[in-house]
Amino acid sequence: MTKSLTLKDRLLSIPIGKIVGATTAHGAPSNLSTKIDRVNWLVEQIDNGKLTFDQVQNATPVVNAPLTIDTARVDALEAVANRAHGYALQGLDATRAVESAVTLMVQKLAASEVAIDQIAKAQAASMVDDSKVAADVASAIAKAFAPFKQSVIDAGAQGAIANATVATVIDRKTVLDVFGVDVLDTSGKQVYVDIWNSPDAPQIDPNFVWSEAILAYLLLAQDKGENLWFGGEKGTGKSETAKQFAANTGRSFTRINFHKYTTTEDYIGSVGLENGATVFKRGAFLTAFTSPSTVILLDEISNCDAGELAPLNGLLEVNSAVNIGGSPQRRAQGVLVFAADNTLTNGDSTGRYTGTRQMNSSLADRFSHVVQFEFLPRDQEVEAIVRHTACHPKLALHVVNAINAARAKVDTGDIIDAPSIRSALAFIRGLSVLSVDQAWHSAITARQPAESRAALDAIKAAYINKNDIATWL
Q1: Which residues are within 8 A (CB) of 282 and not within 5 positions of it... i.e. 6 or more apart?
Q2: How far apart are CA 330 and CA 327, in angstroms?
Q3: Domain hosting residue 327, numbered range
Q4: CA distances (Å), 102 to each of 73, 96, 107, 146, 203, in order?
């Protein structure tokens, strides 16, 4: 059986305007300054038979309520709570765990209201920075919902709740706090990054190595809403950078893989039948594009035909509103769009990336910055390998030196394709069960054309010392 809410809980769920209207109409004392004070007074009146719950519920709202709190934020908070409550009961089949959590959540809402009231007073008294106040309010709301969030996780209903809620910014932290890399603006001040509360943000990889240069572009995209093009060799971290930026900032992440047969309907959407009616169904891109906080990665986009990419031209403009499926489609708050490709928008001149094409200049122009990804510096690559494999640092350095020698041979034409950090990781992991020769062949040379294998085997002979490796395993 569902546990009944108390009279006080029911009153707390009524919008603030009606609460003020009811207390004003029935002669409440003038010193009631917060919603919780007014609710307590109404509980006493109802218990004494002086008015009824229905009278409060049907009271004429007082819009300009003489309260010191931000009533619009509180009403919005209550609306989200009521909607989350309904979806939670539906998604969890009215489990007792969620019922108790919802009750606790209502109580926490009252506490968060007091916190919001205090924040608003502090702002009026000391002219606090607006962005700091917004972050504090969001933090108070997040704390109120924490027990409810945990009960949803325990019941395995994140998917149901994700469909019922909208991600918001809940905090603002320094880049150093979030990524472990200190990024300063041109005036020498620390740069801040927005923290979101998307329930389906990807998992953080604590071993991912960040660079100040790449983070600077990502923060520019966050603050200015600009689209970025990531270009460079395979294995330089383009796709993982986008995913881990979403993970570390609590954002949703959508990756769309393009190929030569990709059509507009595949990623934008198409008209179809639903319950006998003709409706427009959004594709993966449009769904993500209209969902707050989402990081969208257009992966290997130059493999797709230019005509099929044409709808992106309008959507990727600043403040765009493109009519698709009978209604305007707009970029939601906090949505970031990145393209990741082995080219730099102007095609492949090396012949190594078959199927890629030169991008239509109109679409390429929608990406404000082309960010060229390169292999990590030697010390950072050694650090990344040690983090991911827990191997001896000397072994990581030994392998990186060999891999860098192979990459240098790409420039001279002796090797067709440069080994990536993924190849180095595979080689080291393979050493747990394979011989050095077996691990090198399967992780480094086997995927290469025949003309490259001789050069790679020569590098192995010159740089890979089996006896040294044996001492580091």
Answers
A1: 268, 269, 290, 325
A2: 10
A3: 174-373
A4: 20, 10, 9, 11, 27
pLDDT in tens, 86-102: 444 454 444 455 455 55
Look at the alpha carbons of 267, 269, 274, 276 in this order and tell me if their dihedral is positive or negative: negative
Furthest CA-CA distance within the chain:
94
**Lowest mean pLDDT across 123-132, 229-238, 348-357, 446-455:** 123-132
Question: What pLDDT digit, counting tens, does each position of 28-59 carry?
Answer: 888 887 888 898 999 999 999 999 999 988 88
**240: domain CATH number?**
3.40.50.300
The pLDDT assigned to 355 comes to 80
Of 11, 18, 60, give the one whose Cα is nearest residue 36.
Answer: 11
pLDDT, one tens digit per residue, over 176-200 is 999 999 999 889 999 999 999 999 9
Q: What is the pLDDT of residues 106-146, one digit of tens each?
A: 566 656 666 666 666 665 555 455 555 555 655 666 566 56
- Here the tokens at position 348 are 């492949």
What span, in angstroms and rounded, lies between the C-alpha atoms of 448 and 73? 59
CB-CB contact of 21 with 61 (8 Å): yes
Last residue of a domain, one of 373, 407, 433: 373
Beta pairing, strands 192-196 & 269-274:
unpaired
Q: Are strands 336-341 and 227-232 parallel, antiparallel or unpaired?
A: parallel
Residue where a domain stops, chosen among 121, 140, 167: 167
Q: Locate 439 and state its tokens.
A: 């691990």
The DSSP output letter for 376 is: P
Contacts 24+ apart (CB under 8 A), 25-31: 25/59, 25/60, 26/50, 26/51, 26/55
What is the reported pTM?
A: 0.64
Amino acid identity at 138: A
In whole angstroms, give the CA distance from residue 178 to residue 183.
Answer: 11
Residue 1 lies in a domain: no
The CA distances from residue 101 to 115, 145, 183, 468, in Å, are 20, 9, 40, 58
In this prediction, residue 1 carries a pLDDT of 38
Cβ-proximal residues to 442 (8 Å cutoff; 6+ apart), any chain: 426, 430, 434
Residue-level pLDDT at 413: 83
For the cut 50, the answer to whether the pLDDT of residue 65 exceeds it is: no
Nearby residues of 280 by Cβ (< 8 Å), 6 or more positions away: 269, 270, 271, 324, 325, 326, 327
Q: In angstroms, what CA-CA distances link 192 with 33, 118, 138, 220, 247?
A: 35, 24, 16, 11, 16
In a shared domain, residues 349 and 419: no
Report how far residue 10's alpha carbon sits from residue 429's, in angstroms, rounded to the nearest whole number. 59
